[in-house]
Amino acid sequence: MTRVAAVQLAPVVGDLDGNTAKVTAALRDALEQGADVVVVPELATSGYVFESVDEARSAAIRPDDPRFDEWARLLATRPGSVLVVGFAEDAGEVLHNSSAVVTADGVQAVYRKVHLWDREKVFFQPGDARPPVVETEHGRIGTMICFDLEFPEWTRIAALAGADLLATPTNWPLGPRPNDERVAEVQIALATARMNHMAIAFADRSGTERGVEWSEGTGIVGADGWLRDSVGAGTGVAWADLDLPASRDKGQSELVDLFGDRRPDLYGPLLG
Amino acid sequence: MTRVAAVQLAPVVGDLDGNTAKVTAALRDALEQGADVVVVPELATSGYVFESVDEARSAAIRPDDPRFDEWARLLATRPGSVLVVGFAEDAGEVLHNSSAVVTADGVQAVYRKVHLWDREKVFFQPGDARPPVVETEHGRIGTMICFDLEFPEWTRIAALAGADLLATPTNWPLGPRPNDERVAEVQIALATARMNHMAIAFADRSGTERGVEWSEGTGIVGADGWLRDSVGAGTGVAWADLDLPASRDKGQSELVDLFGDRRPDLYGPLLG
């Protein structure tokens, strides 16, 4: 079994050093509590509600930044462990809203958010590559970011690429919802897990930032589509022990297979 | 506004005449209560848990069956009204698990279920065409059936084809779920509505049939992804007044558009 931790943090916009320290502390704590895979929010190192491109740039880092080496050294204290962390990526001319898959051996993959939401388009350049799926000791870990999860083509692509667990850093602004209803994006995560028989760990943020409130929707859903744990208000950690390679069995009975029953011969053209 | 009724019925396997009478009575009642669009379950005329192909064939009808004419005459009593009904289709050599979109002018479209579930494969031939979208006085009505709804490619195709309302006859066998959780398929319907900004009316069945229990999950979800009404245990009707053409506005802010933000340049090949 793989012990997955999805961490709800409260970054402060522009405070790169303070936010980095929060990620480091959260990673250390989670590893000490036996986490094998740790997921932290989107833009965890930079904050979210930027006032200018310059401000975003001042909190952006490159994938060869020493911070990743520091996290890799921490990960080395628990063999096989993995961190998935959202960060503002300095890519020279442009910035990306990215997530990195990090092991004791360093950064294994960087994903650049393809479906930028709202004013993210002002600050970031969208990515142009599909979500990576990284083979680890614990299984195949895919990653995408926040609004990406609301594009069913994108999550399907990650599942078809073999992701056992989709590690999803998010910042979900709080929207209106009826009483007793879940955060809408959490509902989407649950349905997506079930339709693809793929576990999903989503790490949201808390803390009001320049007037924006957040959904505080951090949680972990199993490949069966049922929520295993969630955080709720404030900072905290959702935990789940998951059999990640079991996500690969898409069969539900002798005659039902979620992937085998697909009809790609009928899908292609309209989605192209 | 369009008054939508999703009807939860209890068909009896093989009882074509009795089931037809139930559909007719449900349609008459719904129209008398002001329904503009009436959706009844999958295989409403035939029942579901067949013991043999012969039994399924004995309850199968053709789209030119006089029953559809009878329903069309009823629909003529409320101008512009529409019925979406699931039936076992006699297509000569083979049978299909089909749904028909019927107006006062007769059958407007027949959809043959593409994603057959489990032992349906024993009795039915899968369809090989995409879900139709029928232009009506109340908006554009698409239809698919039950397990189809769990293939995100398929629902996306219906939404991209312009469906304002996805009328979905279903028979959802009861599965295990944690306390206080919704029927999993309902959760998928809610997420699908939100991801596509498309209303969905799903008409499930009740009544135990040859040992199979049903989820009794009938309900209607708005294009915003929130459930408007549901039936619960037993037979009954879920109601909702919906602005169907409003489903076409995929914009959520000046910079967010659920369709415009798609990246088909990156989707095509993997889904083909």
Q: Kindly report the greatest chain-chain contact and the residue count on each side.
A: A-B, 49 and 49 residues
CATH superfamily of chain A: Carbon-nitrogen hydrolase
Assembly level? homodimer
Cα shape of chain A = globular
Report on this structure.
- The structure is a homodimer of 272-residue chains.
- The radius of gyration of chain A is 18 Å and the shape is globular.
- The mean pLDDT of chain A is 97.
- The first copy, chain A, has a six-stranded mixed β-sheet with strand order 5-4-3-2-1-12. The first copy, chain A, has a six-stranded mixed β-sheet with strand order 6-7-8-9-10-11, with helices on one face.
- Chain A contains seven helices and 14 strands.
- With 272 residues, the first copy, chain A, is α/β, with parallel strands linked by helices.
- Chains A and B meet through helix 5, helix 6 and helix 7 of A and helix 5, helix 6 and helix 7 of B.
In short:
With about 270 residues, chain A is α/β, with parallel strands linked by helices.
Please outline the helices and strands:
The structure is a homodimer of 272-residue chains.
Chain A (H helix, E strand, L loop, with lengths): L1 E7 L7 H17 L4 E3 L13 H6 L7 H10 L6 E10 L2 E10 L2 E7 L7 H4 L9 E4 L2 E5 L8 H9 L4 E5 L14 H13 L2 E5 L15 E3 L5 E4 L5 E7 L8 E3 L2 E2 L6 H8 L1
Parallel strand pairs in A: 1-2, 2-3, 7-8, 8-9
Antiparallel strand pairs in A: 1-12, 3-4, 4-5, 6-7, 9-10, 10-11, 13-14
Helix pairs in contact in A: 1-3
Entry keywords:
homodimer; 272 residues; alpha/beta; Nitrilase/N-carbamoyl-D-aminoacid amidohydrolase; 6-stranded mixed beta sheet; 14 strands; 25% helix
